[in-house]
Amino acid sequence: MIGDSMAQKEVRQKYLDGYNKGRSDAIKDLYWLKRDAERPGGAADLQRRYYEVPVPEHVTTDGVLVEPRKVVIEVVE
Question: How many C-beta neighbours within 10 Å does residue 37 have?
Answer without folding.
Answer: 13
